[in-house]
Amino acid sequence: MDLQTKILFSWICLQVIFASVFSDVWKAEVATPIEALVSSCVVLPCTFNYPAAQYPESLVKGIWHKTGDTVHRIYDADSYNVVDNFKDRTRLVGRLGQKNCTLEINGVKDHDIGPYCFRAEIKNFDKFSFEEACVRINMIPEPHKPSLDHDESVTEGLPTLFKCYVTHTCPTHPPTIEWSRSDVKPRVTNKHNGHGVWEVESLLSFTATQEDDHKDITCTVTFHGDIKSQVTHKIYVKRKENYSHIIIPVVAVLGTIILFGTGCFFVIKRYKKQIQDLQSGNGYRIVFLHSTSKILSCSMDLQTKILFSWICLQVTFASVFSDVWKAEVATPIEALVSSCVVLPCTFNYPAAQYPESLVKGIWHKTGDRAHRIYDEDSYNVVDNFKDRTRLVGRLGQKNCTLEINGVKDHDIGPYCFRAEIKNFEKFSFEEACVRINMIPEPHKPSLDHDESVTEGLPTLFKCYITHTCPTHPPTIEWSRSDVKPRVTNKHNGHGVWEVESLLSFTATQEDDHKDITCTVTFHGDIKSQVTHKIYVKRKENYFHIIIPVVAVLGTIILFGTACFFVTKKYKKQIQDLQSRNPDGVWSRLSRMSRRNHGRRQEPDRNIDTKPNNYASTLSGTEGFSKPRCPSPQSEKKAYSKSGFRCSDGYDDDYTNVGDLNVYGNI
């Protein structure tokens, strides 16, 4: 080309170079693409920078517009400039003074796909549209179904745990989660997974009973705009063989039975003895027992126009070509020194899919294809990476994911993937290289816990940490081994994974003021831990007292009633026996007891002794005469004037000894 053309070409190249430098200063970072639920809301995360000292918010104006059309504004501080379709539906939630241009879109419509770009207008300085960083929105017509994690088995009397969670892209109006049972307060958290994706989760822990068996537990998520989604799980409760609720009352009842039975036995025995004595003529004493118990434009000639058009065509075809040969990686990515890191990677090429045997994958340093950190022929790998890298993706499935083991602090990269397809083409994806940020020490795990722990109620601890090595995820151990935790490992996207462990148990007084420790062990035996002290609130529970007392009282009433009727029966029998024989030994002893008792009350009484067949007791001037009764062998029985017959009531007083022919008073 001639001199003029060379100068023009050089000028264009300089413009491109300076534009690149300039755009590095005017720079914005957004999350794209981003999902949005139709009829709900979406937040477009955005930060920006400009080549000047930071201006106050009053001098910075923020505008969001459609790509290539600064007039089609979806947000402007002056709502008059906003297109009708977006009026009253957008607001800036970021602070421009802090270089935050985050936008919220409400009442999302299925045609709000964008792309949308941010434009900064700084008073008395400059204006710039960040069209290299525009946001494309992917519409979701229906909400995602929430995920419900649960224990594999539920045992009666033991704590069980349910976790319901869902991702969303509207942190200003996060979805709410409700459970089908309201007797337990769940613990809800809302965390940022990065790249504009948030996650809300609800943890529900309770002690399972037989009433929960075959019951459904439902988790309902309500998104902004009153859009609902739910998931249900049926609970199957395994019965736990626990007989404490039977043993304690039974022991109490048996103890009461023995006590009252013994007492009642002796009472009845004494009554029986009394009856026998009555029947045999002996007396006894009764004893009673008692017992209590939670744009560039310029004019140019024809030759210049042709050259410029050629350059544009080259750029266009290069763009198309690069769109076909395309790789997607997560960059930058963190790596823990001495541990491992996995670099997620997928790629595409302008041909039908080749089998894995015809595709060769290579990872090399940016700009140096000979500096290979991975090659299936290990002879081509640089010494520093020998035996430390392996391809974990399947090239036949266009997956080029790489694992690096024994990470060193100088393994920062950037590293690019190169595909060599036999009998077709070779290509290095240098527009998509991975830069590694080194972490010399492991992050401390996060430990979530209940604000208060109550004795006898389930309590929940959650320990979790992010990592970038899913092929060798970290392990989590707790300081107490009597409970089996539930461990999950999930992908948060962009090469970041999260492992979490949920520990649920019923708190007792023994747990009060004890430390609970969560220890995370990364690949390479690198440890990190966090500790929390438990404070247990005592729960006033009197069932262990009430149940035995009620059982004892019931037994007392039962046996007391039975014993009462038995003793009453025996008493009646004794009275009947006494009434049938008023002049028996028992009656006479009773009368003698009354006489002796009478003498003690009347010391002046005078008793004279008379002959055997006559007795007279003087009390005042009256006396009585006991008639003489002749021998049973006499010819005729004598009667007193009052009609008294000697044989009536006195047979026990007289003894006829026939053999001795003796009679008389005994």
What this model shows, in words?
With 666 residues, the protein is α+β, with helices and mostly antiparallel strands. It folds into 6 domains: 138 residues, Immunoglobulins (Immunoglobulin-like); 92 residues, Immunoglobulins (Immunoglobulin-like), CATH 2.60.40; 98 residues; 138 residues, Immunoglobulin-like (Sandwich); 92 residues, Immunoglobulin-like (Sandwich); 56 residues, no CATH class. It contains 5 helices and 42 strands. It has a 4-stranded antiparallel beta sheet with strand order 6-5-9-10, with no helix packed on it. The chain has a 4-stranded antiparallel beta sheet with strand order 12-14-17-16, with no helix packed on it. It is elongated. The N and C termini lie far apart (170 Å). About 11% of the residues have low confidence. It comes from Hemibagrus wyckioides.
